[in-house]
Every structure is written in structure tokens, then in C-alpha cells.
Input
Amino acid sequence: DEKVQFLRELGCDRPINYKKEDLKAVLRDEYPGGIDCIYESIGGDMFETCVKSLAQHGNLIIIGFITGYENKAGFPTSRFSTLPPVLLQRSASVRGFFLFHYSKLWKKHFSRLAQMYAGGKLKSQV
Output
């Protein structure tokens, strides 16, 4: 509930608390045309739900895979053999961003982010 409120304060149109709501049902019922841009960090079933919820020309941004990190056996076997046709039929794309691949940019942009935060233009919640 706290995260949902935070997202509303940021201007998010429709925060979804996946622990209290049926994510698949919300996406299917409230966004029948799909979603243009999805930011995903969970992986597993959540990733699959997000892929299937992409709109035509939609973009799925992956910044993590917490279900894999929490698995002592390592990353689970992929069951996304349907990924290519789903993306192709929607002309959609998936893009991963691994933070450490951008380490050369940190110094350049950190001071700007700090200024934005100090000026109230950037909000953070951990």
C-alpha cells in the first residue's frame, strides 16, 4: 500500500499491487490493447505476464531477475520458447539494462541526479 501511494504521488496512472490484485486480470481487463512500456525486475512468471501484456510496438525493459537471484539452484530453466513469436506478432521488443555496464556514466550523471534530488525534482523510496 505504501508503494502504491508513492507511485500515485509520482503520477502513475494505475499502480498495481500484485500481492493484493490479480495482475493478469487487471492487465487483461483494464488494458485490452496491451501496454506500451513495462519496467520489470522480477522475472519468472512476472516476466511472462509482462511479455504477454505488451501492446503492438510495446517495449519491455528488464533491470533485474529477482526470482533467479533468490533461487539457490541458480537461474531456472527458461520456458519462454514462445517469446520470439509473441514479440514478432506485436513488433515488440525486450531490452535489458545491467547497471554495471554503464559504470563509466555514473560520475558524469551522479551530480545531476543529486541536484535533482536536492531540488525535489527526483523522488526516491527504498
In short: The chain has a mean pLDDT of 87. The helical segments are 2-10, 23-30, 44-52, 66-69, 83-90, 106-118.
